[in-house]
Amino acid sequence: MDNRLDWDPELQVYRVNLDAIEYRSISVAVVRSVAVLEDTSPTALQPLQKSIDPDALDDLLRQTDEDTRECRIHFRYQGYSIRVIADSEIRLSPSGNTETIAASGR
After folding, report:
1. Dihedral of CA 101/73/61/44: which sign?
2. Which pTM value belongs to this model?
3. What angle do CA 58, 64, 65 make, to 5 degrees?
């Protein structure tokens, strides 16, 4: 598994480029990224569906029209603020981080 988690010191977030990962499921990428950050197995984490509907999250990536590609989703999972930018990246911010990761959609 290669999640390519990069720390962005300016934004104070971990970033996962969706084009650079080996799988095309946002929900799997979120769970695996948090597992890497927590140094644990994905199966040791609480189910993602306790925070967000994984199927709906994955549907974001399947959309191809211009309006949907600008969609952003924000939710909390396992002590992280997660921001998914539909066609480009996932940002993970530790819970103590004060960065504003407001959800927006166009």
Report:
1. positive
2. 0.80
3. 125
Long-range contacts of 14-19 (CB under 8 A, 24+ apart): 14/91, 14/92, 14/93, 15/89, 15/90, 15/91, 15/92, 16/89, 16/90, 16/91, 16/92, 17/88, 17/89, 18/61, 18/87, 18/88, 18/89, 18/90, 19/88
**pLDDT by residue (tens digit) across 42-59?**
999 999 999 999 998 888
DSSP-derived secondary structure letter, 46 = P
Residue type, 11: L
Which amino acid, one-letter code, is at 106?
Answer: R
Domain spans of the chain? 5-94
